[in-house]
Design goal:
about 500 residues, alpha/beta, Amidase signature (AS) enzymes, eleven-stranded mixed β-sheet, binds glutamine
Length: about 500
């Protein structure tokens, strides 16, 4: 059965159509993989019975010749997407027992396309983090190990660390993620897989537990660019239940995937050459430029002068929106409730007990920057800088069709390594946050290994609504990089 977990979504769909195996067999192979890799802690909730029921329905459709676009494809769902009747925790104690009575639009669309749900994937609490170490359900372990003999457990990136680790470890063929400042792209880079954050508004946010509403966007993880395109095809589209959801037509993202890159202008933003960037990151970035040049693309230098303000402004805007969004967790309407002497006491005890340290830090920062007297100095100022960041991109895209950058300033680090220094942790997002601030589509694609044998990713960024070019350029990198390395865990526990 192991080879069924080695397929891509595209090859699995072929196999299902040709009746080489059934959706039930495919799902069972993945359920077994999930069970055998519990030590990675990828899943908060496993839902094998739901997956098998969906697989059974998929098989019936294959037999009837009425198969859906992604019929029988086993996926994992980040535990930030509300799933009807299935616990949805946001990796927080405060939502520890929350069972939604409704289904998020994006997850519903994936079920409507025939996917089967293996379970709910671990994440940083309320998607706040870059290492999946802030989860109330414990950290996730990256299936990759450094080759330096240390055998250290590494982070899978965050916040969608359960998603990235599960796809890399071949526990599912694809997974959903959300990206507010990098939470799809950075974990994809840390685990050697592909991850796309589409344009803000492409995917409905309805039914996704909110972190920072003007930045949150759903997206997909998979092991190939084509698989990401297939998933995204099913996830996007206008939703009247989300006022920020776009009415733009959704093209078939696979249609132009393999188009020629001849004459495409690829911009290299000079401000992304940050101080102290490891040589290996610099090297893989140059390698990426060479690969694209070899395929006929033209490399042009561009400038995004406000890049250095992106992180500081993100860490004003995201906490501000989080403090507002998380005000609803008061012990009355959802989840955990502590008993107190009076109402106020109950609120305070519930929130002190229910939220972890990082979430509390963000709520306090957010409340501060929104408070009277500081609102103009911090929040309004940050919004103005956000506009300048967006205008930088607009100008850059007058000179080129896509930008190529590293995804993250390092490869995966050891669990616990940056935990005592929030600022150092925040620096992980230096290359991903600007795209989020401007609402643009961005994708990470695996490009190679560093000297410790750990994956490195390259990021492609395009104009709003131009995911097709994102995929096309990412596919160019994928073809040239021919990244076939696999995490060691696949050799250790599930070979044969
Ligand atoms: N790491 C960033 C943060 O902690 C981004 C998180 C995300 O994209 N959800 O806010």
């Amino acid at each position: 059965m192991t080879e069924l977990t080695n397929l891509t979504i595209a090859t699995a769909l072929e196999g299902l159509k040709n009746k080489d195996f059934t959706a039930t067999e495919l799902t069972q192979a993945h359920i077994a993989a999930v069970e055998s890799a519990r030590d990675l802690n990828c899943f908060i909730t496993e839902t094998p019975e739901i997956a098998l029921k969906q697989a059974n329905e998929a098989d019936a459709r294959y037999n009837a010749g009425t198969a859906l676009a992604l019929d029988g494809i086993p996926i994992g769902m980040k535990d930030l997407f509300c799933t009807e009747g299935v616990k949805t925790t946001a990796a927080s104690k405060i939502l520890g027992n929350f069972v939604p009575t409704y289904e998020s639009t994006v997850s519903q669309k994936l079920w409507n396309a025939g996917c089967t749900m293996l379970g709910k994937l671990n994440l940083d609490e309320f998607a706040m983090g870059s290492a999946n170490t802030t989860s109330a359900f414990g950290n996730v372990i990256n299936p990759w190990k450094p080759n330096d003999g240390s055998n250290a457990d590494l982070v899978p990136g965050g916040s969608s660390g359960g998603s990235s680790a599960a796809v890399a470890a071949q526990l599912c063929l694809g997974a959903t993620g959300t990206d507010t400042g990098g939470s799809i792209r950075q974990p994809a880079a840390f685990t050697g897989i592909c991850g796309i954050k589409p344009t803000y508004g492409r995917c409905s946010r309805w039914g996704i537990v909110a972190f920072a509403s003007s930045l949150d966007q759903a997206g997909a993880f998979a092991r190939t660019t084509e698989d990401c395109a297939l998933l995204l095809n099913a996830m996007c589209g206008h939703d009247p239940k989300d006022s920020t959801s776009s009415r733009q037509d959704v093209p078939d993202f696979t249609a132009t995937l393999n188009d020629d890159l001849k004459g495409k202008k690829i911009g290299i933003p000079k401000e992304y050459r940050v101080d102290g960037m490891p040589d290996e990151i610099e090297k893989i970035w140059s390698q990426g430029m060479e690969w694209l040049k070899d395929q006929g693309a033209e490399i042009v230098d561009v400038s995004l002068p406000h890049t250095k303000y992106a992180l500081p402004t993100y860490y004003i805007i995201a906490p501000a929106e989080c403090s507002s969004n998380l005000a609803r967790y008061d012990g009355v309407r959802y989840g955990l409730r502590e008993t107190g002497d009076d109402l106020r006491d109950m609120y305070e005890l519930t929130r002190a007990e229910g939220f972890g340290e990082e979430v509390q830090r963000r709520i306090m920062i957010g409340t501060y920057v929104l408070s009277a007297g500081y609102y103009d100095a911090y929040y309004i100022k940050a919004q103005k800088v956000r506009r300048l960041i967006t205008e930088d991109f607009d100008k850059a895209f007058e000179q080129c069709e896509a930008l190529l950058t590293p995804t993250a300033p390092s490869s995966a680090f050891a669990i616990g390594e940056n935990d005592d220094d929030p600022i150092k942790m925040y620096l992980n997002d230096v290359f991903t946050v600007p795209t989020s601030m401007a609402g643009l589509p961005g994708m990470s694609v695996p490009a190679g290994l560093d000297s410790r044998g750990l994956p490195l990713g390259l990021q492609i960024i395009c104009k709003a609504w131009d995911e097709q070019t994102v995929f096309n350029v990412a596919r160019g990198i994928e073809k040239a990089a021919n990244f076939t390395a696999k995490p060691q865990i696949l050799g250790l526990s599930r070979a044969a």
